[in-house]
Amino acid sequence: MSAPIRARFQVGYPGFDLDVDLDLPGRGVSALFGPSGCGKTTCLRAIAGLERRARGRLEVAGEVWQDDAQGEFLPPHRRPIGYVFQEASVFDHLSVQGNLEYGQKRSGRRGRGSGQRGGLAEVAELLDITPLLSRRPATLSGGERQRVAIARALLAAPRLLLMDEPLAALDLGRKREILPYLQRLHDELEIPVVYVTHSPDEVARLADHLVLFARGRVLASGALGEVLPRLDLPTALADRAGVVVEAAVRRYDGHYGMLELGFPGGPVQVPHGLVPLGSRMRLQVRARDVSLARSRPVDSSITNILPATVVEVGAGDSPAHVMVRLDAGGTPLLARITRRSRDQLGVAPGMQVWAQIKAVALLA
Amino acid sequence: MSPGDLAAVWLTLKLATVVTLLLLLVGTPVAWWLAHTRSRWKGVVSAVVALPLVLPPTVLGFYLLLLLGPRGPVGQLTQSLGLGTLPFTFAGLVVASVLYSLPFVVQPIQGAFAALGRRPLEAAATLGAGPWDCFITVAVPLARPGFLTAIVLGFAHTVGEFGVVLMIGGNIPEKTRVVSVQIYDHVEALDYASAHWLAGGMVVFAFVVLLALHILTGRREEGR
Fold first, then answer.
1. Which chain B residues are within 8 Å of A156, Cβ to Cβ?
2. CATH superfamily entry for domain A5-227
3. Choices 3.40.50.920, 3.30.70.920, 2.40.50.100, 3.30.70.20: CATH for A242-362
4. CA–CA dist A82, A183 (Å, integer)
5. Complex ipTM, two decimals?
6. Residue A188's pLDDT band (cuts 50, 70, 90)
7. 3-state SS class at A272
8. Taking CB atoms and an 8 Å cut-off, how many pairs form between chains A and B?
9. What percent of chain A has pLDDT over 90?
10. Which of A6, A85, A122, B180 satisfies CB 3.0 to 4.6 Å to B162 for a cystine?
11. What is the DSSP letter of A194?
């Protein structure tokens, strides 16, 4: 694993201040998540060197890019980064090919990173833009423009890829068009990605590391599997709270069209088409889809019933609800139950329960 | 057309070409600065650049005459450098025309730079383009319609000036007698036929230039 990203930034201007101290892993996708105006984009821009008002220190893979105490500041064009803006800022005066070559030509000057996956042809293939190469950006759809912008950023041979809500400016259809490409990048890229978003769905699908932002501060930062089940955080996700589990495909039941997915504490059966056995998939289990029983239900239509231990009981997103954190054989789960049920069942830490999972969403 | 007329046309085209080139050199940095600065001097500089739009050309010409003349500070400087004085020379005409047409060049370019915003420049920077590279390969090509407008307006406005020319250049054949002054002379002499040749030519020229500008910038808009 390459050395991580250490960022300490302070920005203050009337009505807003940002004060963050972040350690991000040197691989995988780190999602900066929070509501609009919480400072996550400012933080990303500061990492790119685009926010000169941000004072502090930034170290990436052992190299100091900024240290205001020492008067050091690497200007954006000397930082080996790729940056994807919210609205695809492709250059309208160049063809798609010209756009892709723009960063590629200049990449030699600042140290080539391993983010470059082969040449232009391969990256164009990866993002399915080969047929668009001779087109003018003005003739492309929003989704196509964003794919060109992503390819252009990759071809700049970055050692760090920064993405600022790359899907936020697109409609639902276009989002669905781009997400598979991002998931593919997530699986194939060897460089760290810092991904700003306010979409819980994008976090669940893409993030490996989650940073929760609120009002210019970092509330929590850690591996996705550790941060999502925490009960002490303000319910940023509200009724969308849940956990994300990495699972492996173990069996396919062709008669009923069900996949069996294994993980510590599993398995679960999910209705799905055939996929190669052994492949890794992400599952999302929402807290509101998990109910609890003291004894194993034998006459339920619910297929997925896992034994678990109650770890913690916390406040829910409404006064009538509580959030229960469970440990199902090593995998944390969240269950959202009513306060009344908690009292009737006597749910308390240490108790053995059966978690009935009504729905599991396959994310990839 | 008489040889005098042809000389006036030639002089006018020469003047307008030199002035337009100088205006691009001077006006582009000014436009860039005005489009991006947050300085409190922005208002002052904008106002100074725009002054020729509202001042009578004679006012500008009068002060330039004093400034560049033998007793003016600039005049004394040019004399001490062995350049003589500028009024009533082609060089003097160029200096005056640059000042007089400056807003016609600065404002379209400034508008085009401002409309671009910072985003394309930031995108270029994250792709490894330094500030100068960014300017040449992104800002200027994307601001092309602004530059086209600036070139056409700067050139045409220089061709069309009269008051400043008369104040600074006088009316010296083949040195400072441009078309507009030549027309004035013809009319004064009641030689309407000659005046028509030049005046009609100016009308056609202006019309063709503006039409060409419309077509050039319009085609680009449709391409978006």
1. 126-128
2. P-loop containing nucleotide triphosphate hydrolases (3.40.50.300)
3. 2.40.50.100
4. 17
5. 0.84
6. confident
7. coil
8. 70
9. 43
10. B180
11. E
